[in-house]
Each structure stands twice: as structure tokens, then as C-alpha cells.
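Q: How would the C-alpha cells look for this protein?
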Amino acid sequence: MQVKKIQSLFMIAFALVIAFVAGCGTGGNAASSGGSPSGTSEAGNAPQTQAAPEKKEIQTLRVSFVPSKDPDEIITKTAPLKELLIKQLGSQGYQVGNVEISVGTTYEAVGEALGAGTADIGLIPGGTYALYSNEADVILTATRKALSIDSDHPKDWNDNKPTQGVDDKQATYYRALLIAGPSAKGQELARKVNEGQELTWEDLNSANWAVMSSSSPAGYIYPSLWLQDKYGKGLTDLAHVSQSDSYGSSFARLAAGQVDIVVAFADARRDNEANWTAKYGRKASIWDETNVIGVTQPIYNDTVSVSKNSAVMTDELKKALQEAFIAIAKTEEGKGVIAIYSHEGYQVAQASDYDGERKAQELLRSLKK
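A: Here is the predicted structure in C-alpha cell form.
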């Protein structure tokens, strides 16, 4: 009887041990099914699939262009930008439902649209950005082919003629030059510069000048700023200044000796090289007969600017747009779009790049008073 009791107690104890072991095993499996810190699953310890990044949705993105060419032509040529932007922004996690493209009635109208937030993005010149920089942020500067010379010193331009384009280098700005021609006065001024002498106000005031209209950056505004910085006077203070209707007519007058100095964008001599002898009657080349006597500060190219009052604009979206436009400009279809403004690419811009434009706008306002 006692033996049977011992056998029964032994069997009960054995059953309790089996139940305890089974319970521990079940508890261990339950814990692992909830996942582990290493992100592995029970089946083969395979990595768990990461969740896709959340899409940032933009119902409509509005892009406005300035009317530098026929509005219908701009709308037609830039139409592919819609899908290009949607695709590029999509690769950065943005889901854009629609891109609307419009052309402003004036440059100022695009600036005002950015200010009002009725346009999110504007492709505008530096001058327009400077006028509306309280309402818009510049994010990109357009690039074009660089020149072989980029110096503040006129003698450097004369020592390294002719000026040429550089195929493998892009520039975000250009310069305006004061160019002396083959007249006796023009040669006198060039000789002083090439001998390392500083020109005086009297030197410049005794010459005949050809300039463009007062709204021309290279043909008027920046040369006037150059004079202001050096002599405290502008083009309006010179004794002998006449306005040309084109750069071509300025160079024709320079070739004829009717003027001693022209002001023009830095590669204007390249544009007039053939005409100098074929049309304007000179025997020697334009490079032999002209010299640079002044170089302005950089004139920054057109901008891609964004509205500070846009309902969709954020710092993150600005960065995404920078990357998108830079990528678009590297595609064949994108090159066709931006060619409407003679853009070849884009580089990230700083607001301070356009300080010269702000001074230019101040000068324009003073001229209108």
C-alpha cells in the first residue's frame, strides 16, 4: 500500500514537470512571434520589410514664366515640364497631382503672383527677383557657357584676346565691359590701361560714349554702377553720351570712329567679330582694334524663385525643387524646355548673389525721379 502511494506521488510529480517544461516552451514561442530588436522574424530569421516612405501630396503646383518671348511659344515649349517635374519630385517622395504653367502679362505680374502666393514657382530675371525679394526666395541661378576670361581687371582681358567660349564650363553670371575702339581717344584710353595707369574722370568725360536704354543691365545699369563705385558719378554725368538702338549699331559707330567707348555684355565682340570687317568696313580684326578699359561686377543670370506665401512651399520642398530642376536640365527633354530662355543648366543660388541687382534697382528708381 505504501509502495503504491509512492508510485502515485512519483507519477504526479513527473506529470507536473512535463507540464512545466511544455509551458515554458509555449511562452518562449509567444515572445518571439512579437518580433525581436534585430528586426527578424521567426521563419528563418529573415529581415522584415521596411515601410515605404510616406508620400507628401501636393494637389497643384503652379509655375509662372515671364513673357520674354511670345506667350503661346513659351506655353508650347515648356509643356513637357509638367510631367518632368511630377516625375522628379515623385522620386523624392512627393505626389504631385497637377502642374499648371502660365505666362505673366508682364515681368512684374509674375513677381506679384509670387508675392500673392498665386504662383508657387517663377522663372524670372535677377532684376525681377530683386524687386520682389521680400515676397520670393531665389533657389537656383541659370547657367550658360562660360568665357575664357573672367577677371575684374581690364588688362587681363586685353592680354588674353580673343575671348572664347568654354564648352566644359558653365557660368552663373556674366559681366559688362567698357570697350574702347580704334579712334584716337579710344587708343589713348586703352594705352593708359594697358600700361597699368588708372583712368581719371576727366579721361572718361572727354570721350564719346554709346550706351543702350536705361533698363539694359549690361548696356547701361551696371556700367553706371561701375562709374558710381569708382568716381561717385554715373552715365548721366558724362558730357558726351548717346543711346544706340542695338549692340550692333553701337559697334558700327565704334568702328566708324563716331564713338570712342561702347558698353556691352562680355561676349558682344564675339557676336560682332564677323561684321567688324565684313559690314563695318574695318581692315583689322575687332580683337586687334578694341580694348577693354573697364569691367563691371558680375551680373547674375535668370533665377528659379519660389513664393514665400505659397500654401505648399516648405524648406524641404525648396530643396526638392532644386534637385528636380538640376536633374531635369541634364535630360534631353529638359534641355529643350529650358532652351526657351537660353538656359543650359542650374546651380544652387544665394540671395546675396543678387545684391548687385538690388543696387541696380535703386539706381533705376533714382533715374525715374
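The chain has a mean pLDDT of 87.

The chain has 16 helices and 14 strands.

Upvote if useful.
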